[in-house]
Amino acid sequence: MARKKTWRDMSKGQRISVLVSGVMNLALLVAAQRSIAKTPDSDIRGKKAVWRAVSFINFFGPVSYFLFGRRRDAAGLNS
């Protein structure tokens, strides 16, 4: 069985990639949580508590909230 790669075993490019991915994931999470907090219940599909929990799923949770969790108005814009 292969040994897990540690931080020291990674190249500089791999380390930067891990850090950038982590920062992007955190930014998506914060943006989704702020949007859920500020958006009225009537503009969110489903319950806010469920979308809050889903948004903690790495990358896919916040993205799914922004794609499927928010209602669109007639003009296709969010309020």
**How many β-strand stretches?**
0
Q: Which residues sit in consecutive blocks of at least 5 with pLDDT less than 50?
A: none
Helix-strand pattern: HHH
What is the molecular shape? elongated
Structural class based on helices, strands and sheet pairing: mainly alpha
Question: How many angstroms does the end-to-end distance come to?
Answer: 52 Å
Strand percent estimate: under 5%
What is the gyration radius calculated from CA atoms? 17 Å
How many DSSP H or I helices?
A: 3
Q: Characterize the biggest β-sheet.
A: none
The helix fraction, in percent, is: 55-70%
Average pLDDT taken over every residue = 90
Which properties best describe this structure?
79 residues, mainly alpha, 0% strand
What's the quick description here?
With 79 residues, the chain is an all-alpha fold. The protein is 56% helix and 0% strand.
Structure commentary:
This protein is mostly helical and 79 residues long. The protein contains 3 helices and no strands. The longest helix is centred in the N-terminal third of the chain and has 27 residues, at 12-38. The chain is elongated, with a radius of gyration of 17 Å. The relative contact order is 0.13. The model has no long low-confidence stretch (mean pLDDT 90).
